[in-house]
Amino acid sequence: MVMGDLVREVDVAVVGGGPGGYSAAFRCAELGLETVVIDAGKRLGGACLFEGCIPSKALLHVAAVLGEAERAKEFGVDFGEPRISLDPLRKWKSERVVGKLARGLASVARGKSVEVVGGRAVFEETRGLRVEGDEPQKIRFKHAIVATGSRPSPLPGVTLTSERLMDSTAALEVPDVPARLLVIGGGYIGLELGQVYAALGSEVTLVEMLDGLLPGVDRDLVQPLVRRCERTFKSIRLSTRVTGLRERPGGIEAGLGDEVATFDRVLVAVGRRPNSEALGLDATRVRVGDRGFVEIDARGRTADPHVWAVGDVTGEPMLAHRAMRQGKVTAEAIAGKPSAFDNVVVPAVVFTDPEVAWCGLTERQAEAAGRAVKVAKFQWAASGRAATLGRADGLTKLLVDPENGRVLGVGIVGPGAGELIAEGALAVENALLAEDLALTIHTHPTLSETLMEAAETLLQ
Ligand code: FAD
Ligand code: NAD
Description:
Layout: E1 7-15, H1 19-30, E2 35-39, H2 46-51, H3 53-71, H4 86-111, E3 115-118, E4 120-125, E5 128-132, E6 137-146, E7 150-152, E8 165-166, H5 168-172, E9 180-184, H6 188-200, E10 203-207, H7 219-232, E11 235-237, E12 242-248, E13 251-256, E14 259-263, E15 265-268, E16 272-274, E17 307-309, H8 320-334, E18 348-350, E19 355-360, H9 363-369, E20 374-379, H10 384-388, E21 395-400, E22 407-414, H11 417-429, H12 434-439, H13 449-456
Parallel strand pairs: 1-2, 1-6, 2-3, 6-17, 8-15, 9-10, 9-15, 10-11
Antiparallel strand pairs: 4-5, 5-6, 7-16, 12-13, 13-14, 18-19, 19-22, 20-21, 21-22
Flavin-adenine dinucleotide binds at residues 15-21, 38-41, 46-48, 51-53, 56-57, 120-121, 147-150, 168, 189, 275, 279, 311-312, 318-321, 323, 351.
């Protein structure tokens, strides 16, 4: 008998060890279910830990330090020209940040007796899968959870393969600081990594096919970020499509509308697509929609009663905190608890300088739906804390139901918006009134006061 013929039986087989998969596995184990995670990399963390949220935020921290040092000149502190050594920077990101968190997750898994099997899982039937790779085996399960995540979308129509052409995973390795970087896509990744490279010293050109950066986000929240990028990027080209990429001896030549320019590296950041192919899902009753997302209900159940799914593979927003919540809900549903993904908000943060964050209803959505809302805005120019930070460029706004004063949505732009939005999420999720925010004492001087101040404008 060879290893691949062994069949083991478990309560729950989780396919994919990212935030959706490990959250589900940990909760299943807590609820007494025998659980294994099969991950192609034989490690927990997924795209988020190894090629997403964490390494990008580590690099954005470096960019923020460089930005603060530059701003310090305004109040008479000059640190001189920064000297950046890429080896220690990469080592810090990969070992001290990512490596440490990966070891932490492995230790939690051991503590909860969740085994991680290395290899690619392929479903063979509705109750069984095989693992291909280092640890070949067959696993029979009572329940499987598909948590295979997503991967970068390629640029349509471009067949070029070149070391100079990077997706986000390659860019996070910081192979060098290219003198001229072309960023294709003005969404989350294009802006976050564009700012990282600009801070490290690249001349960044950003191309976005639509007529604004962060399409879909309210324009007043995006405007301060646009102003900052206009200062730190070489150029931003909206409503522009890249019409071809060619490798030349001196770099990659790109057609940008009517113009042709050459770049040392190109970062493609035009969205992500779900990992739902090559998984053997056709051997199950799972239904996959047109865009490749696995179809689920509010508990994570697919059309196959033995197969569940969570995270990026199930649709947008493709965010780690949504995947984690889904993972916990699905584990509880499998254990027979009355859990459902009935959250009102999935807050979103773009970790740029300034940060842009929002949750619940946006002004764009309200307009599109013809829904009447009261909008309360507080400009950070009037915030004492923002003044002490030298950051008057922020804005906090609340969208409130005119009938009953309920907070329906919150948008914030400014440094720390990613932390501040938690209060907005709490308010919307719990149907708080603007009055509740106004009457809660917020510490002074803090940026959190801007939520209270925005709410107060509605009580006048
Ligand atoms: P993933 O994290 O993608 O994990 C899926 C796992 O499944 C992977 O380990 C993969 O190897 C494994 N796998 C796939 N197929 C198989 C198979 N057949 N067999 C075995 N294993 C398999 N989100 C945020 O909320 N905040 C952020 O700041 C943020 N920043 C990001 C920055 C970047 C550059 C990127 C790319 C993404 C970022 N995201 C962020 C998105 C976030 O990473 C994803 O939403 C999150 O990782 C999704 O989790 P998941 O569990 O669904 O899947
Ligand atoms: P995105 O959807 O955020 O942005 C893609 C951008 O590329 C859009 O503005 C789109 O209009 C543009 N675009 C598409 N095709 C184009 C083309 N041919 N030429 C020029 N522009 C084009 O996608 P992303 O930035 O690749 O990020 C993928 C996903 O990863 C995000 O949607 C998000 O779910 C997740 N993410 C989250 C964070 C965070 O939470 N801070 C950070 C990074 C990534």
